[in-house]
Amino acid sequence: MHFFTKIYLLFLLVILFSSLSSAFLLFEFIERSNIEEASQNMKTSSNIISINLESFNRNMWRYLVRIQNDEELKKLIQTSEWGHDDIVKTILSMPQPIDIDFLVLSGRGYSVVPLSSVTKTYSGLYSLSLLRWHPFVGIKDMKDGLSLTGSIRIEGTGENYVDIFLVKDINRDFCERLTYNTTADLLLINNNRIVQGTFNENNLLIDIPEIDDTWSYKEYFGIIRDKEEYNAVLKRMGIVYDDHSDILFLSLFSNYPYTQRIERFSSRIILVVFLSAILAAFTSLLFSKTITRPIEALSAAMEKIQSGDLSVVLPAFSGKEVRQLVTGFNTMAENLKEDKRAQQNYINEIMLLSEYNEEIIESIGSGICIIDKELCIEKTNKVFRDTFLSNTDLPARPRFNQVESPIFEKELPGAVNKVITGELTSYSRDKLGTGEKYFQIRLYPLSGMRCILSIDDITYRTILENRFIQSEKLSSLSIMSAGVAHEINNPLSSIMTNVQNLIDAETNPKKIEALKWVDQETGRIARIVRDLLDFSNTDQNSTKRTELKRIITKIVQFSSYSISKKNIKLLYNLPDKEIFSSIPADEIKQVLFNLLHNAEQAIESRGEIMINLSQDMDTINLSIEDNGTGMDKETLGRIFDPFFTTKKGRDGTGLGLSVVYGIMKKNNADINFESSPGKGTTVLLRLPSGLKAWSEASSLLGYATKGELNA
Q1: What is the mean pLDDT of the chain?
Q2: Cβ count within 10 A of residue 325
Q3: What is the pTM of this model?
C-alpha cells in the first residue's frame, strides 16, 4: 500500500508537472503568437493608412491632370477675356473624385473658393506659389495648420496664365478617413509636436528616433494610456515642402483583444490542468499521452512553420480545447500559405512586366539612354550600345560626358541637367554626325530626377526633304519663268527686228557700231528668254526615240574646236551597238551642251574631258568627267538652284543646270554630281531606255518598230 501510494504520488506529480509544463509552453506560444499577430496587425493597419493617404494624393493628382487636359478650360485661358469666375465654373463642372476644401486661383489676382463646410480659414491661402511646373501634390504649412495642396499652371496666350491650387485641410476628419478600415487611433507629429489626430493626447511618452534616410518605421509595445495597455507604430508620412521637415504618424492599437484572449485561454488551461490532475488517478499513462501528443504535434508544426514549411496540417485530436487550438493553428497555417502564394504571384507578375518592358526598350529602333541626376548612364538599349558604346572602354556605370561621339555637343550635358531639374520640359536638336549622317537628339524628363535621351537616324528623311524642297523650287520657278518669258518675248522680237532694220539703213559707222552692240545685247536677252522657256517646258508626249551615239558624236564634233583652243582633250568611250533613249534628241543635246560647257569652263588650262556611255538592262549610264577645279560641298549643294552661278561677270545666268535638272526629272531620269576641290567633277546620268516606250507607242500608233531615228 505504501509502495502504491509512492507510485501513485510519483505518477500524479509527473502528470501534474507535465500538465503545468504543457500549459507553460502553450502560454509562451500564445504570447508569441499574440505579439506576432499584433505586429502584423500594426503593419497592416499602418500600410492601410499609408495607402489611404497615397490614394487621396493620387486622386488629387489625377484631378489636376484632368484640369490640365480639359479642352474647354484651355480654350477659355487662350482668350484674352477671362475671369476667375469662368475658370471656377469650368472646374466645378468637372466630376470631383475627391473631397476638396478650397479652390485657389492665382493669375490676375487671387481667388479663394471654399468647397466644403470647413470653417477654418488659412492666412496662407493668399500666398500660395507653384512647387513644380507639372501637376504636383504635397503637404504645405499654411501658417494656421497643415494642408494637402495640389498645384498646376495652365498657360494662355502671351503672358496669360493661371495657377490652380486644390487645398485639403489636414484636420481630425481627414485623420479619421486615413484610419478607415483599421482599428487604430492616429496622431500626426511634426517637429516633435502633435499637430492633428483622431484624439487629443500630448502626454504620451514616446521616444521619437532621430530622423534620417534609413529610418521609416518603428514599433512600440506596452504603452499605458488611461490605465489600459496599447501598442503603437511610428511611421514617416512625408515632408512639409515649406521647411522640408518630416511628418510622422503615430498609430495606436489597443491590447484589449489580446489580453482578453490570454485570459480566456488561461481559464481553459487551468481547467484542463485541474481535470487532468483528477483524472490522472483513474486514467493513468494513457490520459497523459492523450494530452501530450497534440502539444508535441503542435510544437513540431510550429518549428516547421518557422523553418518555412507552410504545408503543415495537424490532424484532429480529441478534446474540445485541443481541437480548437489545432483548428486555429491549421487555419493560421493555411492563411500564411495563401498569403505567401499571393505574394509570389505578385512578384512573378512584376518580374514578367519588367521583362516585357525590357524587351520593348531593346526592340526600339532609336537609341535609348536613361540618365540620372548625377549624369550617370543607368540603362541603354541595343541600338545605343552598338552605336556609341561598342568600341569604348568605359566603366559599368559611366558618366554621360565620358561617351565620346561627334553628335554629342558641349552644351548637351547642360541640357540634360536642365531637363532633369525641370528647367526644360523637353529638348530636341538635329545634328550632323560622321559620314554625312544626320541624327535627331531628344530629351524627355523621367520620374526620380532622371531623363530619357533618344537618338534617331534621320539621314534618309533629310535627303528626301531636301529633294522635295528642290523640286518645289523648280516647279514654282518654271511656272513663273513661262509667264515672264512669254511677256518678254513679244516686245523683244519687235526690238530685234527694228534694230536690224536700223543697221541696214544706217550709214554712219559709229551709229552702226552702237546699233550692233544693241543687237548683240538684245540677242543675249533672247537667249536668256529661250533658256527660261526651255526650263519651263513640260511636254512629255514625244513618241520618238533617240540614238545616243550619233548625238554624242555630233556634240563632240561641234564642241571640239572651242575646247581644243584651251588645250583640252575631249575623249569618249562609246559601245559598238546602238543605244536608244526615250528622251527627245533636242533635250539630250541641250543637256550635253550645258554639261560640256560647264566642264570646259571648270578647266583653266590643259585638261581632259571624258565621256562614257553604257547600257545596263533598261537603264542607260552616261558620265562626263573632267579634271578641272572641282566644287566644295556648299557649292555642290546649290548647283541646281535657279540663277545660282559661280561664273564672274556676264558669263552665266545660273539657269544652265536648272534647265538640265528640269529635263532629267521631266523624263524620269536621274542626275548626280561627284566633286571635290582640286580633283575635278564627274556627272552621272541614268537615262531611261527607249525600247519599251517605242514599242508601246508604235503598237498604239501603228508604226513599225524600226522607225526613223530622231538624231
Answers
A1: 77
A2: 21
A3: 0.38
